[in-house]
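A reminder from the course coordinator: this example appears on the midterm review sheet, so study it carefully.

Given structure:
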């Protein structure tokens, strides 16, 4: 089954779609600041997860 990643709008396979752990709320907040319509229930692809995780590191959080 294919899903569309709500963050990057790319089609991804179902098992590539990630749901961010609630303890990673700093990543959730960061994505929401860039994508106000996104909710963590929408999930995101592994590329986006990696991308935003790196961004947060770069910002020294
Ligand atoms: Zn994505």
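Designed residues:
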């Amino acid at each position: 089954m294919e899903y569309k990643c709500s963050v990057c709008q790319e089609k991804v396979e179902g098992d590539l779609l990630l749901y961010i752990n609630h303890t990673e709320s700093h990543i959730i907040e960061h994505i929401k600041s860039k994508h106000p319509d996104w909710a963590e229930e929408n999930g995101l692809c592994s590329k986006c997860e990696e991308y935003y995780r790196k961004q947060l590191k770069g910002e020294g959080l």
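Residues 5, 7-8, 10, 44-45, 47-48 surround zinc ion (CB under 6 Å). The longest strand covers residues 2-4.
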